[in-house]
Amino acid sequence: MNVYDSNRMVDILKPLGYSPNEDPETADMIILNTCHIREKATDKVFSELGRLKQYKEAQKAKGKTMLLAVAGCVAQAEGEFIAERAPYVDMVFGPQTYHELPEMVANAIGAFGKNRVVNTDFPNENKFDYLPNEQAEIGASAFLSIQEGCDKFCTFCVVPYTRGSEYSRSVEQILDEAKRLIDGGAKEINVLGQNVNAFHGEDKLGNEWDLGKLLFAIAELPVERIRYTTSHPRDMHDSLYAAHRDLDKLMPWLHLPIQSGSDKILKIMNRKHTADDYKRIIDRLKKDRPDIEFGSDIIVGFPGETEEDFQATMDMVDYVKYTSCYSFKYSARPGTPAANMMGLVPEKVKSERLTRLQTRIGEHQHAFNKKCEGLIMPVLIDRESDTPGRLVGHSEFNQSVYISGNERLYGSTVYVNILEGTPNALRGEIVTDEIITTKTG
Ligand code: 5AD
Ligand code: SF4
């Protein structure tokens, strides 16, 4: 979502004369778009700011002004504290206010005689109603944010506090944005939300749509692939199962976080489902779409997690055989209920469990990649390559696929003969010169 937000900041700053710049030495403004989800990410912000300050000072020495901004969830959570600890920062603004950037920039450069901006409001108006239609950077695989915020309040998570309560965009706005992305060359649309399957946007007639219904409508558009992320097991619904069953364009890979395989831990995490509920969802999806594979997020060392609880997580990993999975050591976040819980798991135990878990996840992932050897798979070349003659694309199961080919193939889908499944990716060769679809369709 931060990638999506950063791209939209580019769009909103364009009329002011700003454009993306990879070189911090010549930048007129640097925006650090931040994540607050774990402590490590937050810590990085201040060390990064210290580094970026040098560019600002170098510009100042040349008589120029460089604006330095902190955006995103750390800005939302730390607000004034950032302004105090890093007084050289010009703007601090949360994820729901970046549509106000033109005004904030004017204030920061002193156009109205004001200076420092700290903007951590949750404005009444919605940013999506103020963002420009034009999008500068549309890749072969594009994000489309449809839902934001969360009302679930898992006890470990800062999102409900930093992103705010759940909000769904209107169906019309979403479909218009999808059309523009496709016109701009997107072949794959990845529908985004913190809790994307809780989507409940309204159409023009005021009827509420769920995610399943929305996916059916997006599939009517000339898009090749559709994905959605991130979903919550509690919000699976009939039309979403139907979408998996009936829509070939909906990719057979789903990121469905479990967090823990232990019912006791799931309960104190406030996930509001059991391990068995989760298995039933997996089974139903497999029944509807037999080739589907899964990804997940898992936390180890949540307060109160015993070896037995951890084993239940390992059992779940073996049951689902995730083909990729993010795993984290529990990190106490200020202001969340879990931060005050008893039964802290020692750091050493957390690390040891994480290693065991990641080894097991890696084994399943490698086994799946190996199983793909000898198959011919459609691959969307969706990443521009740094190395001439080397292309990177994605399989339907979201595996990275490395192939040789001309960079003009960027944005095309080609058939690839998979030669090797490595622990983290696939390597293959293009089967024929036949291109299934090109960037222009
Ligand atoms: N500690 C560790 N991991 C966390 N996540 C969210 N909050 C925490 C935390 N306090 C993980 C969850 C979530 C993913 C985005 O980050 O697994 O799904
Ligand atoms: Fe955080 Fe996801 Fe739980 Fe919402 S559902 S509180 S975003 S982990």
What does this structure look like?
With 441 residues, the protein is of the alpha/beta class. The protein has helices at 2-13, 39-61, 72-78, 80-85, 101-108, 159-162, 171-183, 211-219, 238-246, 263-268, 275-288, 307-320, 347-371; strands at residues 29-34, 67-71, 91-93, 117-119, 141-145, 147-148, 167-168, 188-192, 225-229, 253-255, 293-300, 324-329, 376-383, 390-394, 400-404, 413-421, 426-437. It folds into three domains: 2-119, Methylthiotransferase, N-terminal domain (Rossmann fold); 127-371, tm_1862 like domain (pyruvate-formate lyase- activating enzyme, Alpha-Beta Horseshoe); 376-430, OB fold (Dihydrolipoamide Acetyltransferase, E2P) (Beta Barrel), CATH 2.40.50. It contains 13 helices and 17 strands. It has a five-stranded mixed barrel with strand order 13-14-15-17-16. The protein has a four-stranded parallel β-sheet with strand order 1-2-3-4, with helices on both faces. Strands 5-8-9 form a three-stranded parallel β-sheet, with helices on one face. The longest helix is centred in the last third of the chain and has 25 residues, at 347-371. Bound molecules: 5'-deoxyadenosine (5AD) and iron/sulfur cluster (SF4).
